[in-house]
Specification:
heterodimer; A: 12 helices; B: alpha/beta; 12 strands; globular
């Protein structure tokens, strides 16, 4: 991971806002990260933290109005996607950067055979005859491990099971050899045994094809399983950005620590789970200080007044919390608090 | 942890069957059925949490619904308080519904959007006559307090609450009629982890306080491990394993249970489990495989598994498994 690989995607101070009749909702409010070739970056957080909006912003799929990329840059190999004209963007979408969604049934056309749909995606980006594209589609289905791909290519989505449909989505996403694959909750709708198959498949294909993968998920187990680095999001901000190993061994932000502690563990018995009290602040009315302060056990006066920056620690983890700055006067939490 | 006292059976399910007929291709063809639940028997002891786990389509939710007669069972017995629920009329069943409550996955879909919380709770109490009219107001305040909602919530509508709060309302409604058994059908599956932890703690607290019995239906094995006393694993309408929680997680006997447990993503990247990857998908319940239903995906399947259906047998004390080769695999 320390190898200096080619940077594929660089997101700088991205802001995506929604202008609604209730006011401005700052769904994503200034986030930065980079994605390198061959790396898997996890973006994790609870509902409404802005993780999906981040991925949709990268592909410029935010419905506008009411949504708008209000600021920042998304650099793909040095080109800023935010200012790219629509026809240029269309060339990138699905070709250089592609995406798989949570529910394959809603993203596949229900009345067109799946092979046809994959072929359509191929022909959109590559000069190929219909016949060639169809053959390539069958190849792709074989690549993602669908048995008897020739037969399956002629079937409609409803004839396939959930796991198989997700494989079709992956086949379609990979059909143009993308450099970046964005997987938005790719296994959330699947059963655990099928989830294990799909995660295994994504990992294997990534190793073979060398893409950069962005894994958007709410499931910390999926992160532990697949990611190299993780960005934890809370209320439109990244609150902690660390290597996966560091995040699980030595989580820093009180939110991350609370999240990990509130997870029931498969190998451990405890009577009561740790809970993070309260709920996320409204996106229309974000507090001026730290956005987690109202739910944080360790919050001091400074947390309510000023928003902390992402502060880099000695182990490379970046954390948005006053506790890790030099000005911190209060007590630092010990492990026991989260047990 | 429960003390090993004498267990009293609260609910007994014997040979329960739930078939749903499927649309036929032609009127000349015989009727086909989805055997969602196919001849299962188990007991629920008083004060315990029995969990049913399995993948989608294994019949876990159908089992819960058949017990409550939300779907009329095709066959078998459900014995509660000495009476077979399957034979009861709708009216007789209604009198018993006060004892048997259910909490659903999606709290928004199970609360009437046009009723205030007050109306929702009043309706439950009035139908079951669990609380006399003059006392209802106090009882409502008490219920909200129990589930951790402010009293002001009474005059608000479901849409004004967050997912976790709505689930609390669902719990309050179930508690309003003083139930003995609550069936929690994926009750925390739609919630974020931090909210999920709050609801799980609440359920545990209420169980202690009111000696409730839970039948906890879930696909999430970590949650099941946290909340259960005993666990039952289902596959394609059959019970494959049922045992004490600790035994099941530490020493699973059925190959399916083993595969299921090994496919849970570990919450620490430094732990790399030996993973048993199952091939393929769950077969269709319309035409389940002959013999052992798991044989098409089982890494240890032999010829015998294809023809002979394994019975659920007690391999270790209180640890039942339905596999021909459980003894050999245990080694």
């Amino acid at each position: 991971m320390t190898e200096l690989n080619e940077i594929l995607l660089e997101v700088k101070d991205l802001k995506t806002h929604f202008h609604t009749k209730h006011g401005v909702s700052k769904a994503v409010d200034g986030i930065d990260f980079t994605l390198r070739k061959g790396e898997t970056l996890g973006i994790v957080g609870e509902s409404g933290c802005g993780k999906s909006i981040t991925s949709l912003s990268i592909l410029r799929l935010i419905p506008s109005p009411p949504g708008k990329i209000a600021g920042g840059q998304i650099l793909y190999k040095g080109r800023d996607l935010v200012t790219l004209p629509d026809n240029e963007m269309r060339k990138i979408r699905g070709n250089d950067i592609s995406m798989i969604f949570q529910e394959p049934m809603t993203s596949l056309n229900p009345v067109i055979p799946v092979g046809e749909q994959i072929a359509e995606a191929i022909r959109l980006h590559q000069k190929m005859s219909k016949k060639e594209a169809r053959l390539k589609a069958v190849d792709m289905l074989k690549l993602v491990g669908i048995p008897s791909p020739e037969k399956r290519a002629k079937q409609e989505p409803f004839q396939l099971s959930g796991g198989m449909r997700q494989r079709v989505m992956i086949a379609m996403a990979l059909s143009c050899n993308p450099e970046v694959l964005i997987a938005d909750e790719p296994t959330t709708a699947l059963d655990v045994t099928i989830q294990a198959q799909i995660l295994e498949l994504i990992k294997e294909l990534q190793a073979r094809l060398g893409m950069g993968v962005m894994m958007i998920t709410h499931d910390l187990g999926v992160v532990a399983e697949t990611c190299d680095t993780v960005a934890v999001m809370y209320a439109g901000n990244i609150v902690e950005h660390a290597s996966t190993q560091n995040l699980f061994d030595d989580p820093k932000h009180p939110y991350t620590r609370g999240l990990l502690a509130s997870l029931p563990k498969i190998d451990e018995d405890r009577d009561e789970l740790y809970t993070i009290e309260g709920s996320v602040p409204s996106a229309y009315n974000m507090p001026v200080g730290c956005r987690f302060a109202s739910r944080c056990e360790f919050a001091q006066a400074v947390c309510l007044e000023k928003k902390p920056d992402l502060i880099e620690q000695s182990d490379g983890t970046k954390v948005r919390c006053w506790m890790y700055s030099d000005e911190w006067a209060g007590a630092k939490p010990t492990e026991e608090v989260f047990n | 942890m429960k003390i090993a006292e004498e267990k009293k059976v609260l609910l007994e399910v014997a040979n329960l069957k739930q078939y749903f007929s499927v649309k036929k291709d032609s009127i000349f063809k015989p009727k086909t059925y989805v055997k969602a639940v196919d001849d299962i028997s188990f007991v629920v002891n008083e004060g315990e949490t029995l969990s049913i786990v399995g993948e989608s389509g294994c019949g876990k939710s159908t089992t819960g619904r058949s017990i409550l007669k939300l779907d009329e069972p095709t066959g078998g017995k459900v014995i509660y308080a000495g009476r077979n629920l399957v034979d009861l009329s709708r009216k007789e069943m209604r009198d018993l519904r006060g004892d048997l409550q259910v909490i659903f996955q999606d709290p928004f879909a199970s609360l009437n959007p046009r009723q205030t919380i007050k109306q929702i709770l009043t309706e439950a109490m009035t139908i079951q006559q669990s609380v006399p009219k003059p006392l209802q107001k106090d009882r409502m305040a008490e219920l909200l307090n129990l589930v951790g909602l402010p009293t002001e919530a009474l005059n608000r509508y479901p849409h004004e609450f967050s997912g976790g709060q709505r689930q609390r309302i669902g719990i309050a409604r179930a508690l309003a009629v003083d139930p003995k058994l609550i069936i929690c059908d994926e009750a925390v599956s739609a919630l974020d982890v931090s909210i999920q932890a709050q609801i799980l703690n609440l359920l545990k607290k209420l169980q202690k306080q009111f000696q409730l019995t839970f039948l906890f239906i879930s696909h999430d094995l970590s949650v099941v491990r946290h909340i259960s006393d005993r666990v039952m694993v289902m596959y394609l309408g059959k019970i494959v394993e049922i045992s004490d929680k600790k035994d099941l997680f530490d020493n699973p006997l059925h190959p399916y249970t083993k595969a299921l447990l090994s496919s849970i993503p570990a919450t620490n990247p430094s732990i790399k489990n030996e993973r048993i990857l199952l091939k393929g998908d769950v077969p269709s319940p319309i035409n389940p495989p002959s013999g052992c239903r798991f044989h098409t995906r089982c890494p240890f399947a032999a010829d015998r598994c294809k023809t002979e259906e394994p019975a659920l047998r007690e391999l270790e004390p209180d640890h039942f498994v339905s596999c021909h080769f459980a003894e050999e695999l245990a080694q």
